[in-house]
Amino acid sequence: MSAPLAKASVEKLKSYKPNFGKTIKKNLIRLSANESALGTSLDAVKVLNEYASNLNRYPPQVSEDLINSIANRYSLNKNKIILGNGSDELISIIAQAFLEPENEAIHTEYGFLQFPQAISITGAKAVVAKDINFTVSVDNILGRINKKTKLIFLANPNNPTGTYIPKDEVIRLHTSIPSNVILVYDAAYSEYIKNDLYIDGSELVDKFKNVIMLRTFSKLHGLASLRLGWGYCSEDILNSLMKVRGPFSVNIAAILAGTAAIEDIKFQEKSFQHNKTWMKWLKNEIQLLKLDFQPSITNFLLVQFPETSDHNAEKAETFLAERGILVRGMKVYGLPNHLRISIGNETENKILVRELKNFLENNHEY
Ligand SMILES: Cc1ncc(COP(=O)(O)O)c(C=O)c1O
After folding, report:
1. Nearest atom (ligand 1) to Cα of 34
2. How many distinct structural domains can be found in the chain?
3. Is the same domain home to 199 and 312?
4. 120 in contact with ligand 1, CB cutoff 6 A
5. Does the beta carbon of 108 lie inside 6 Å of ligand 1?
6. Are residues 273 and 319 in the same domain?
């Protein structure tokens, strides 16, 4: 007898599969998940060690301390901050809270894969707005809005392309959408950006009730394993989301380490500078290898490989994996000729480029 089926909207989905390699090798160079190249703030590690004997208690449902630290760090209104078990959880509960099966939600062509996944689970229709030159097109998003549209998911900058749309385009998008449509503005990589043309979305949240900004501790703050994200939105939206979110979804380790990490400005600055330096270096090296890439402002690069069978993206991914270097194949995003490569530490970056050179300059047996 087979097990009962899940609802139809779930049965037809594929589960999300990251590339973490088939074996757990300690010395793997993992450049496949856009994680922090410099590990974690030592302040966060210290606070975790100190708390390890107190694990029998439930965490607070809402951590005032962490929320206050986030509000202070980014000069935000603490009443508008919601914490989640990674921004992934917030993406899911936004979809669950706002989408009925007869609704539509828009996501961009090469947008983050969790968006269509979260939309489809609710039974609502995921509507694709085509990108132009691997960049979000505001006109194409606006062209997909109709009476059924409830949400627009926009990652800016976007994963996996690394590209972004400037402030005036974000404002044009927001001013052109009906007030009953919510713009979910995912700024997961905003900590890597110091550029006046960019906005992280918080000023829109401060002015308007139909915007949710999403942020994560998984990237610059180096806490991906603890699962900690946060959202910034009107108190009305926040109250709706809290009805859907699990009461204790953010665990105590995430709360304590997150609070320490957000207050560790030195680690954040060091991570920012590291990324700036090595992104510049990697772009230059990839150019010398005569490979094309998108102009990323994040901590990863979307690199295009020739379609020729000898040196295509799939073979490059295998070649690198055999040498212990994991990068992210992009077939699942509909980009079979691309690989997404995260910035690693100095040694990792140099080994990556050495092996890419080796791959491109020689013919290898498979
Ligand atoms: C655009 C974007 N949003 C959200 C996430 C998920 O972040 P978290 O680890 O907080 O769930 C990622 C992770 O790669 C991402 O690239």
Report:
1. 14
2. 2
3. no
4. no
5. no
6. yes
**Lookup result for tokens 């039974």:** 123
Looking at the structure, do residues 20 and 83 belong to the same domain, yes or no?
Answer: no
**In Å, how far are 26, 37, 41, 318, 339 from 324, measured between CA atoms?**
10, 16, 26, 10, 16
Closest by Cα among 188, 236, 205, 221 to 87: 188
**pLDDT tens by residue, 232-268:** 999 999 999 999 999 999 999 999 999 999 999 999 9
Instruction: Report whether residue 155 contacts ligand 1, using a CB cutoff of 6 Å.
Output: yes
Give the model confidence (pLDDT) of 289-322 as tens digits: 999 999 999 999 999 999 988 899 999 999 999 9
How many degrees, rounded to 5, is the angle at CA 347 between CA 345 and CA 353? 100
Q: What pLDDT does residue 55 have?
A: 85
Pocket lining: 111 vs ligand 1, CB cutoff 6 Å: no
- pLDDT greater than 70 at residue 364: no
Owner of token pair 């560790």: 264
Residue 1 resides in a domain: no
Q: Which residue shows structure tokens 């989905």?
A: 13
* Residue 7 per-residue DSSP state: P
* Domain harbouring 28, CATH code: 3.90.1150.10
Where does a domain end: 235, 264, 293?
A: 264
- Asked if residue 3 belongs to a domain, the reply is no
Checking if the pLDDT of 18 tops 80, the result is no
- State the pLDDT at residue 73: 98
Ligand 1 nearest-atom number relative to CA 216: 10
Domain span holding position 64: 42-264
Evaluate whether residue 49 is within a structural domain: yes
Is residue 366 domain-resident? no
Residue 234 corresponds to which tokens in the numbers above?
């009107």
Helix, strand, coil shares, percent, the chain, to 5? 40, 15, 45
Pair 323, 354 in one domain: yes
Q: Please tell me if the CB atom of residue 342 comes closer than 6 angstroms to any atom of ligand 1.
A: no
- Which pLDDT belongs to residue 346? 98
Nearest to 262 by CA among 191, 322, 316: 191
Contact 243, 314 (CB under 8 A): no
